[in-house]
């Protein structure tokens, strides 16, 4: 419901619509065609990367007013999105207070609570009356605070005593003092807490903002829920891309440069390829068996892809459950028991399908020779073994990686693929030897 | 920073810590040991599924007060999490107004804006003065509204005229009327808009709440940002699980029943298996070639897994970019051009590694016979072809599925795997025939 009069000029919607297909030059040209107020809205709604690109492309005399539109946490993000040599110049565009705040924020890692927080929060003393507090906040509301809806009650040394929602204050009898209406039992996060953990605290508490404390309990800033939506989405994108077998791109697909994108994909692809070379070594060990019973080779892709698929299911489930905090390191045994059961059930299902397929096919067109029942039994037993192994390995590797302090998402997919393919071949050919020696082999 | 005195009783943190390993009975027992105020906090912080399970396990005389703790949108979610036969009973526990509101909400699909919204928003008339408005809101603040921080300005027929943030109102000169300080150019969503699209509007605007309108522009409720964090996470989990080659579980990993979990995995695994059976058919067509040159079989797993891995990278990237709105249907040709380039670059890289590996290995231990250069060339050419094909197929299938109105995430992974494996075998053996006929074949 954006009620706007018809007009000739470029609108915000027009520009947003074509933004992702424009060249950097056309973006700046389009941006400068917008009326100032729409351009501001457009600028503020974009992420730090786009803002940095726009800012750098504008003529020097226009840059200051755009840089100063930003709250300190957003300005810090923009500075971080700049190449190192451009950072001091942009810091120089800010007013003194903001520059100080931005420098303080830049000291934190980008994905810690400290790197997400804004230092501009509304504050009160505990001994103010509710009416004094409301008047005082009415003055603070005109400042550029992140939110006035949560108000933090501090002692003289900036230690957090409690928090009061604006709404509580507003609904309280005017005579009470802030200490009486505030919640002393405040949920807070530490400035060095990882952003994923901060996201979990938001999810558990349902608050719109959380205070960020240093090790001594001093209030350093607040993190607001809108920052967390981006974090949640970003983390999910990273995990999805890592599970897809590559480095996280760290930029939108159509915006990242071709060489960088290929680089982020080639590394893992080459690592996977080197791992998969072990399959050629494994196959070479069974070259005699294949030469004697070529029929065995026919089912190699089927067997190893089934192991890979079941391993990938298990890995995906466990990694996502870990990311959501549903599964912890100490749950490994519960997960293992579950997955052994699941692997046996799934392996038996696939094995039965495979067995039936060979038997039925043979009845229609006898391609598997007189010993087709041995072939079918080999396929059945191998599938049970391979799928169970794939499922178990896929579910336990994330635990192992986490225990070794590695990121489960980025390493599991390739490890599982290689491990399961190589082991799958060994299981298959060993089963074949056991079943077929004396007949086909 | 949860400052609590030491005490003997079970605390909220204790219970939360062990919650996910408790049986349903132990959960209820533990829950009933909490002091009432902690139990309420605990109840409210859980999702609808847990709330429904707890509520049903409590004795009938205690259920009413728990059901009435919930705001109408949360109550509607809880009712939806109940088995159909239990719904009327729980609706009967609510007060009349809430029950009416919940029934209205239940008419919407769970994943539409209408299914997410709360009907309890703060409202004003346009001709009130700012001071009157603040006094009026102070009264509304004591009611159970979702938020008082965005206030919606309605005409007599409940049509939305504009929105004013509480903060604007608070900072405005007292003599002005609401119409002067409100924003008429309001961003709103339709009640039948999909929740993913609602998430994107939140991301683009950065607001804490959005009004939900019906087709005639009447305000039906509001969606708040905290609902969207859950939605974003849920959608990411679904996409991750689908990309992992299974149906989305729809419940936390350790909580879903074993049979349901295996069912959600067995379906896709069996579909993938049936598709992969085509590889056995494809291999059978080349049985003579394998019999003549067993060395060819050794590289089958390596070749097809490289095609699968590169296809999986491309599919994952495109599907995530689609989910984030970075890539749209009409971008297919830009993506295809990019991915052909990426595929050629990646294929050449892997092919070169493969070629070198065979040549170096042969120098160390001559296992590939006198024609090892032909084998190495076959592997090189096949990898360029297979990886390029895998990359292109992986990137374009999501577009095809989306154009056919199917969910790209749930179908691409299996299709790509099967397509690329079968085509990979054909490419490999055809290349081998072309290069080796007259020598090895």
From TrEMBL, chains A, B:
* InterPro entries, A to Z: CBS_dom (IPR000644), CBS_dom_sf (IPR046342), Mg_transptr_MgtE_intracell_dom (IPR006668), MgtE_N_sf (IPR038076), MgtE_transporter (IPR006669), SLC41_membr_dom (IPR006667), SLC41_membr_dom_sf (IPR036739)
Record's subcellular location: Cell membrane; Membrane
User: Which UniProt keywords are present, listed alphabetically?
Assistant: CBS domain, Cell membrane, Magnesium, Membrane, Metal-binding, Transmembrane, Transmembrane helix, Transport
Give TM regions. Answer: 266-284, 290-319, 340-360, 372-401, 413-436
Q: Reply yes or no: does the keyword Ligase apply.
A: no
Membrane topology recorded in Swiss-Prot or TrEMBL: Multi-pass membrane protein
One of its Pfam families is: CBS
All copies of the CBS domain together span 117-181, 182-238
**NCBIfam families per the record?**
mgtE (TIGR00400)
Q: What does this protein do?
A: Acts as a magnesium transporter.
**Family, per the entry?**
Belongs to the SLC41A transporter family.
Tell me the subunit arrangement. Homodimer.
Q: What is this protein called?
A: Magnesium transporter MgtE
Tell me which species this is from.
Answer: Anaeromyxobacter oryzae
What gene name does this entry carry? mgtE
